[in-house]
Design goal:
One of its GO terms (molecular function) is carbon-nitrogen ligase activity on lipid II. With 253 residues, the chain is α/β, with parallel strands linked by helices. It has seven helices and eleven strands. It binds glutamine. Glutamine is lined by residues 22, 65-68, 71, 98-99, 154-157.
């Protein structure tokens, strides 16, 4: 996999903000930009609306959540564009949320019909019995070395992971993929059901994505406020079993 160790400018590509970006998913872009700039890395942001061809030179591609109609349209246009698989072959990172996550898989349901996804992640999505709405928490795959996942979910789909991808987390509160696992990742492609936005609630997940590009660990930032947010949200869903992040705790204000 290619990395850019002497990275001076990080290229962030935000896909289809005209169709997909519910519940503050744009914040993921802002968090990545903020945390890159905090490490002395310049950021170049490209916003690609669904009527435009996307570049294949991005370092990190972001795609958010949305309702069934825009989701199906976005999948059609992404498949017609054909650039995202080429970017992945060049080593790009993808962080996809909810509808965007389902689109990365082989198929998903929208408005009662099955739609083809991009097949970049070994997942497929069906419809669940009831909408999954509310806070979610979970323990992230230990291989990723990221503390407890926290966020907000609102989706009707249920997602099933094949042998070529791994769950992002084990669910301790909420539904996620199927009540047991949440999100998926394989190589540099990651998906999650979480809004919040996800990377504001999980800043070390943002750093993981950045480190996949730079190929090195990043110097820590002052995460006092994100930590306070995390602790408040984690305590709200499970006060007994989910203690505050051990290495950066602060008293709730
Ligand atoms: N339309 C999809 C579902 O309901 C995704 C929802 C979303 O992105 N919030 O499962």
């Amino acid at each position: 996999m290619s990395t850019r160790p002497s990275l001076s400018t990080l290229r962030l590509v935000w896909l289809y903000p005209d169709l997909l970006s519910t519940y503050g998913d744009r914040g993921n872009l802002q968090v990545l930009a903020y945390r890159a700039i905090g490490r002395g890395i310049d950021v170049d942001i490209v916003e690609v609306t669904s009527d435009k061809h996307m570049p294949t030179e991005g370092d990190i591609y972001l795609i958010g959540g949305g309702e069934d109609g825009p989701q199906a349209l976005a999948a059609d246009r992404l498949r017609a564009d054909g650039s995202l698989p080429r970017a992945v072959n060049k080593g790009a990172v993808i962080f996809s949320v909810c509808a965007g996550y389902q689109i990365m898989g082989t198929s998903f349901m929208a408005k009662g019909e099955q739609h083809a996804g991009l097949g970049l992640l070994d997942i497929h999505s069906q419809r669940g019995d009831k909408r999954a709405v509310g806070e979610l928490a979970g323990q992230i795959d230990p291989r990723l070395h990221v503390p407890t996942l926290t966020g907000f979910e609102n989706h009707g789909g249920r997602t099933f992971i094949g042998p070529n991808a791994a769950p992002l987390a084990k669910v301790t509160h909420g539904i996620g993929n199927d009540g047991t696992t949440e999100g998926a990742w394989a190589g540099r492609i990651m998906g999650t059901y979480l809004h919040g936005p996800a990377l504001a609630r999980n800043p070390l997940l943002a750093d993981l994505l950045l480190s996949w590009v730079t190929g090195s660990q990043l110097v820590p930032l002052d995460d006092t406020w994100p930590t306070a947010l995390r602790n408040e949200r984690l305590a709200a869903v499970n006060p007994k079993q989910l203690p505050p992040d051990a290495n950066n705790a602060m008293e709730l204000m």
